[in-house]
Design brief:
Order of helices and strands: EEEHEEHEHHHEHEHEEH
Helix content: 25-40%
Strand content: 15-25%
Radius of gyration: 21 Å
Structural class: alpha/beta
Number of helices: 8
Distance between the termini: 54 Å
């Protein structure tokens, strides 16, 4: 289980641009479940992912994976049990290496290695079988440089690389947003097959409400660093979720605007005084 307790993060502390993204934020994610995270830009979705993966340190709080506090581990140490697929299909792969080299590197995750000894022939058959599971014919292109693959092929390879060591948690950061609708559906189906088969606890940032309902076990919505909705996909239709999304975000923005106006009036009073 992933348990986040009292997580806090503020950027530009003490400056005019100070931005408190999270204040005592808590969340529990059941093991083997896929949770879709919705919310507008700036609500804290990517900041949350970066604090889980270790590329960003929280100001306070705990991120527990089982009984291990990830906050106390380095980014490299966390990478052993954490997989991540980014929005950009190029970020999860090494463009100038071929498919075999990329997969070999993924299998050595968490271990020291040199590029001269990157490929271990005893792993080749396992790599071929993993690639076959994608049903994209990549097992026949082992020596093809990844930069020559399509966006969908690269994202499929990135997904496979992120899960090949069976991580305890998988972070999907809008991983189909840069793809066309047909390819996006393909990647979502492959993602669903992988995480269900391997029983990987998954957090999925998405702006696609249909995908959230179709593929997730639970949907949460963030706004201003707070959970404003926590619901099961079976409890809502896409139309209802769209309406709720708009209402929650507008409500949150309205409160923020009211707060800003009040602060502005207070400053005016202070100046007059």
């Amino acid at each position: 289980m992933l348990t986040i307790k009292n997580l806090s993060k503020t950027f530009y502390k003490g400056m005019d641009e100070e931005n408190q993204v999270f204040d005592n934020f808590s969340l529990e994610v059941e093991e083997s479940k896929c949770v879709a995270i919705l919310g507008p830009n700036g609500c804290g979705k990517s900041t949350l992912f970066n604090m889980i993966s270790g590329s960003l340190d929280p100001d306070g709080g705990e991120i527990l994976l089982g009984d291990v506090d990830l906050v106390k581990l380095s980014e490299d140490e966390r990478a052993i049990d954490t997989g991540k697929v980014n929005q950009d299909p190029s970020k999860g792969v090494c463009q100038n290496l071929n498919i075999l080299e990329n997969m070999s590197m993924a299998l050595k995750k968490g271990h020291k290695f040199t590029f001269k000894r990157l490929i271990d022939k005893k792993n080749n058959q396992e790599i071929i079988e993993k690639l076959k599971s994608l049903d994209l014919g990549l097992e026949k292109k082992l020596k093809t440089q990844v930069k020559f693959l399509s966006g969908g092929q690269r994202q499929s390879l990135s997904l496979l690389m992120a899960t090949v060591k069976k991580p305890k948690i998988l972070l999907l950061d809008e991983h189909t947003a840069a793809l066309d609708p047909k390819t996006s559906k393909l990647i979502m189906d492959k993602t669903n097959d992988l995480i269900k088969k391997e029983k990987i606890t998954t957090l999925m940032i998405t702006h696609n409400l249909k995908n959230a309902i179709e593929y997730a076990d639970r949907i949460i919505m963030l706004n201003k660093g707070k959970i404003v909705l926590d619901i099961l996909p079976s409890e809502v239709t896409e139309e209802e979720l769209t309406r709720i999304y708009n209402e929650k975000i507008e409500e949150g923005n309205g409160m923020e605007a009211e707060k800003s106006a009040s602060l502005g009036n207070l400053r005016k009073v202070e100046k007059i005084a």
